[in-house]
Amino acid sequence: MATESPAGESPSRGKRADAQRNRRTVLAAAAEVFVTSGVDAPIRQIAAQAGVGMATIYRHFPTRADLVTAVYRHQIEECAEAGPNLLAGADSPFDALRQWIDLFVDFLVTKHGLADALQSDSDRFAALHTYFLDRLLPVCAQLLDAAVEADDIRPGTQPYELMRGIGNLCIGRDNDPRYDPRRLIALLLQGLQRPHAS
C-alpha cells in the first residue's frame, strides 16, 4: 500500500507535479534566454535563469532541438489558451482581440528568436508551422467573430490574413531600433474598428 504525503498525495504524484513545475519553469526561462541570446545560448545560462541544475534540463529535453520545439509549442499553447480567457474577461470583444494580438506579437518576437532553428530541415520543426496554424487560427477566428457580432469591427477580415499581416509587420523589428511594429499594428486595429455614432 502506498504511503500518503501530508498533503494527501502519493509520493509519485508529488514527484510528477514537481517535474511538471520544473518543466514549465525551464520552458519559460528558455524562452526568455532565446529572445536575448538566441537558440544557441549555453544550457547553463538557461539553467541559471530557471534556477535548476543542468541535469534537470537534460532530463526533460535530451537535445537542444527538443528544447526549442518544446518552447515553441508551449508558447503556442499559452497564446491559444489566452483567447477564450480574454474574451470572457475583457470589457468588449474588441478589447479582447486587441489584448490577444498584443500577446501574439510577444509570441512572434520569441518566434523570430527561434527562426534559425525553425528553418532547419528537421521534420519536427516543419510540423510546428502546421501546429501553429491549427491552434491559433481558430482562436483568432473566435475573437474576430465576437467583435463582428458586437458591432465593434467591420465583417470580412479573415483570421489568416490578419495573423499574416501582423507577422509581416513584426519583421525588421530586431535590426532597426527606430521601427516599432506595435504602433502600426495599433493603426491596423483602428482601421478594423467600426465607427460608432456618438
UniProtKB/TrEMBL annotation:
<dbReference type="Pfam" id="PF21597">
    <property type="entry name" value="TetR_C_43"/>
</dbReference>
<keyword id="KW-0238">DNA-binding</keyword>
<dbReference type="InterPro" id="IPR049445">
    <property type="entry name" value="TetR_SbtR-like_C"/>
</dbReference>
<dbReference type="InterPro" id="IPR036271">
    <property type="entry name" value="Tet_transcr_reg_TetR-rel_C_sf"/>
</dbReference>
<feature type="region of interest" description="Disordered">
    <location>
        <begin position="1"/>
        <end position="21"/>
    </location>
</feature>
<dbReference type="InterPro" id="IPR001647">
    <property type="entry name" value="HTH_TetR"/>
</dbReference>
<keyword id="KW-0804">Transcription</keyword>
<dbReference type="InterPro" id="IPR009057">
    <property type="entry name" value="Homeodomain-like_sf"/>
</dbReference>
<dbReference type="InterPro" id="IPR050109">
    <property type="entry name" value="HTH-type_TetR-like_transc_reg"/>
</dbReference>
<feature type="domain" description="HTH tetR-type">
    <location>
        <begin position="20"/>
        <end position="79"/>
    </location>
</feature>
<dbReference type="Pfam" id="PF00440">
    <property type="entry name" value="TetR_N"/>
</dbReference>
<feature type="DNA-binding region" description="H-T-H motif">
    <location>
        <begin position="42"/>
        <end position="61"/>
    </location>
</feature>
<keyword id="KW-0805">Transcription regulation</keyword>
<protein>
    <submittedName>
        <fullName>TetR/AcrR family transcriptional regulator</fullName>
    </submittedName>
</protein>
